[in-house]
């Protein structure tokens, strides 16, 4: 059972990107969306929901695509009281297009954004407060890692604004983008962005030098189940 935090985050809405195909997991997982890959007989998505609820997230907007009916049925059966809105892409829009579509459904002016195949147990209270204090367009949670080549690196300036994004290659150490954000909805929707685009490439990496983008270091538990090795690690490490 998740240990629930008694404080309420100043941001209580979350977008969860749950439309991933899970192509690299096909050798170990049935043909389901990545977020529905089972970990101890529960979809990985259940762990993400429990984590977000523990930080006072009250409303969930799910971005769905591939085999969306599987997720819809699961949420209906196992989370009947969850305050959830399901946004289904008629065609793949990329991470940016998916977030943009979901942001049109938000009630507040700031939202947490999480990936459906990544669990990063960063402190959402800290994320939200720093985001609001800086009046940031986007605030990224960054995970320190060692000896890796699967992720690019984010560098920060002394004032914690983003200095640069570096490409994927081998790094002895560095800060990676943990895939958990606080986003100013109106600022994001006002950007001149196409219907289909990558949030990482076409928004973060293209605009960080023109917008207020903050990075916060969070040395918390992180797992991305996008490859079989880490999916198997999730089986050893996670419980709910």
Give a structural overview:
It comes from Ilyomonas limi. Keywords: Transferase. Residues 15-237 form the Nucleotidyl transferase domain. GO terms for molecular function: transferase activity. This is Nucleotidyltransferase. This protein is of the alpha/beta class and 240 residues long. The protein has one domain (13-237): Spore Coat Polysaccharide Biosynthesis Protein SpsA, Chain A (Alpha-Beta Complex). The protein is 28% helix and 30% strand. The chain has 7 helices and 13 strands. The protein has a 7-stranded mixed beta sheet, sandwiched between helices. Helix 2 links the parallel strand 4 and strand 5 (84-88). Helix 3 packs across helix 6 (199-207). The longest helix is centred in the N-terminal third of the chain and has 11 residues, at 44-54. The protein is globular. The mean pLDDT is 91.
**Spatial strand arrangement across the major sheet:** 5-4-1-6-11-8-12
> Count of DSSP E strands?
13
| Percent helix range | 25-40%
Low-confidence stretches: none
CATH architecture label name: Alpha-Beta Complex
For the CA atoms, what is the radius of gyration?
A: 17 Å
Q: What's the CATH H-level superfamily name?
A: Spore Coat Polysaccharide Biosynthesis Protein SpsA, Chain A
Envelope shape: globular
Number of helices: 7
Distance N to C terminus: 5 Å
Approximate strand percentage:
25-35%
Total number of domains: 1
CATH topology value: Spore Coat Polysaccharide Biosynthesis Protein SpsA, Chain A
- CATH class category name: Alpha Beta
Helix/sheet category: alpha/beta
The largest β sheet comes out as: 7 strands, mixed
SSE run: EEEHEHEHEEHEEEEHHEEH
């Amino acid at each position: 059972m998740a240990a629930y935090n008694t404080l309420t985050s100043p941001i209580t809405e979350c977008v969860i990107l749950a439309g991933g195909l899970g192509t690299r997991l096909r050798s170990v997982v049935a043909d389901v969306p990545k977020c529905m890959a089972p970990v101890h007989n529960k979809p990985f998505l259940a762990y993400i929901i429990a984590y977000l609820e523990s930080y006072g997230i009250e409303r969930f907007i799910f971005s769905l695509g591939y085999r969306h009916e599987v997720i819809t049925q699961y949420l209906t059966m196992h989370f009947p009281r969850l305050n959830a809105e399901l946004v289904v892409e008629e065609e793949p829009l990329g991470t940016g297009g998916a977030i943009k579509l979901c942001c049109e459904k938000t009630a507040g002016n700031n939202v947490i954004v999480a990936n459906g195949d990544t669990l990063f147990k960063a402190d959402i209270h800290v994320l939200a407060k720093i985001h609001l204090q800086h009046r940031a367009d986007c605030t990224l949670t960054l995970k320190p890692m060692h000896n890796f080549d699967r992720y690019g690196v984010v560098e920060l300036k002394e004032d914690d604004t983003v200095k640069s994004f570096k490409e994927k290659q081998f790094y002895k150490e560095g800060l990676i983008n943990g895939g958990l954000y606080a986003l100013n909805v109106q600022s994001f929707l006002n950007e001149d962005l196409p219907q289909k685009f990558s949030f990482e490439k076409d928004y973060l990496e293209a605009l960080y030098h023109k917008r207020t983008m903050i990075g916060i270091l969070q040395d918390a538990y992180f797992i991305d189940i996008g490859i079989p090795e880490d999916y198997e690690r999730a089986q050893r490490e996670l419980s709910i």
